[in-house]
Amino acid sequence: MKRDVLALYLAGRDPRVPWYVKLLAAATAAYAFSPIDLIPDFIPVFGYLDDIIILPTAIWLTVQLIPAALLAELRSEACHRLAQRPHNAFVAGVIVAIWLVDAGMTGWLLWRR
Q: Residue 66 has what pLDDT?
């Protein structure tokens, strides 16, 4: 799914893709990468509806509208980009440290009250 969403992002920027497919590809990729859901996840049963039905359907529809040869090229480029994605343990450590400091400060402030 990561590969196809990244391929759709690339399709949204490719000049060989028709404008209406670009629009759908960009909207689908933006929705997939967005932390905001159409239906919030905390709503029982319906919260994951967009993750299970809406997003895969939008990906499937958009993939069907892209010519097969172009889609194969975009998927190859997406795989290449995913393989070269840097993995930085230092940055992950900094993010975890920030969360721990934040949790500690919150606990300390609550304890003082």
A: 93
Name residue, tokens 């090229």. Answer: 73
Cα separation, 78 vs 75, in Å, equals: 5
Residues 6+ apart with CB under 8 A from 113: none
Domain range spanning residue 26? 2-87
Would you say the pTM of this structure is higher than 0.85? no
Q: How many domains, in total, are found in the chain?
A: 1
Examine residue 102 and state whether it is found in any structural domain, yes or no: no
Check residue 90 and report its DSSP letter: H
Q: Note the pLDDT of residue 62.
A: 93
SS3 85: coil
The b-or-e profile of 58-70 (16+ CB within 10 A means b, else e) is bbeebbeebeeeb
